[in-house]
């Protein structure tokens, strides 16, 4: 059983529920879903998924997943209705109300992706329990299963080799993962795009990783940000983890289902 939510957070959710057009934007791993060793096995907690489904049914309320995962992976693990807005690869991929998501890289970007793949594959193949995930504009080097020493070594070598061989890389460090992309975008830019697309009067955002800080930084005075788990954050509120995030979303849905907001 989760602890009661902080009074300040409950008050913020109550006020947020009153806005006419609300955007609920959510990271997936570590926020809706507990972290797992194999990313393909991640699933949202049942309570979190139920709360998201309730929010999706409400008028003037849009729900978006904003993830570092590629869109295809995000679709598979989230298993949510098609009216869920999806942002993958930290904003490089978008699937809004169009069922198709496309990323078109130019010839120069494609060449850099090929070089990057060669460099990072050599690193992954040379160190135990380190593996490479393909992304639309780059790759993620996963080290969760590696020893701490091997993980540190993999990160150092990958950074050095990739930066030596490929110009203008965007590099993001997360929990046991190092991501390299030939195109730059952030979750903050994604949130701003979603805000405009949905004409939202206010935004709720929840996330757990370093990359979510860009999204928290994009929030305004009337928005609500909730950090899932430990670590420095720009979010105004924090809860312990995915179970508590599920409680937050359920509480927001309950407030939003009432007659308090301007439908």
Describe the protein.
The chain is of the alpha/beta class. It has 2 domains: 7-102 and 186-257, 3-Layer(aba) Sandwich (Rossmann fold), CATH 3.40.50; 107-181. It is 38% helix and 20% strand. It is built from 8 helices and 11 strands. It has helices at 7-16, 46-56, 71-78, 107-126, 148-165, 187-198, 213-217, 242-257; strands spanning 22-26, 61-66, 85-88, 93-95, 131-135, 138-142, 170-174, 177-181, 202-207, 224-228, 237-239. The strands form 2 sheets. A 7-stranded mixed sheet has the order 4-3-2-1-9-10-11, with helices on both faces. It has a 4-stranded antiparallel sheet with strand order 5-6-8-7, with helices on one face. α1 (7-16) packs across α8 (242-257) and α2 (46-56) packs parallel to α8 (242-257).
Shape: globular
CA distance, first residue to last residue: 33 Å
Strand content: 15-25%
Reading the helices and strands in chain order gives HEHEHEEHEEHEEHEHEEH
Q: Count of DSSP helices? A: 8
């Amino acid at each position: 059983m989760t602890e009661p939510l902080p009074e300040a957070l409950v008050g913020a959710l109550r006020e947020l529920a009153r806005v006419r057009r609300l955007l609920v934007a959510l990271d997936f791993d570590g926020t809706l879903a507990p972290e797992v060793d194999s990313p393909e096995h991640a699933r949202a907690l049942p309570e979190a998924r139920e709360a998201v489904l309730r929010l999706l049914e409400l008028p003037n309320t849009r729900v978006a997943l904003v993830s570092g995962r590629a869109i295809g992976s995000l679709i598979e693990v989230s298993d949510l209705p098609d009216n869920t807005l999806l942002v993958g690869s930290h904003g490089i991929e978008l699937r809004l109300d169009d069922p198709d998501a496309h990323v078109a890289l130019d010839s120069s970007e494609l060449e850099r992706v090929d070089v990057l793949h060669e460099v990072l594959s050599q690193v992954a193949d040379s160190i135990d329990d380190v593996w490479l995930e393909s992304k639309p504009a780059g790759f993620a080097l996963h080290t969760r299963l590696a020893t701490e020493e091997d993980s540190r070594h993999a990160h150092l070598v990958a950074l050095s080799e990739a930066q030596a061989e490929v110009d203008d890389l965007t590099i993001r460090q997360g929990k046991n993962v190092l991501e390299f992309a030939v195109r730059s975008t952030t979750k903050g830019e994604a949130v701003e795009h979603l805000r405009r697309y949905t004409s939202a009067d206010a935004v709720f955002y929840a996330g757990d990783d370093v990359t979510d800080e860009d999204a928290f930084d994009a929030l305004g005075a009337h928005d609500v940000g909730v950090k899932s788990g430990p670590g420095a954050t720009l979010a105004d509120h924090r809860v312990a983890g995915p179970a508590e995030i599920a409680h937050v979303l359920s509480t927001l849905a309950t407030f939003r289902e009432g007659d308090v907001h301007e439908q």
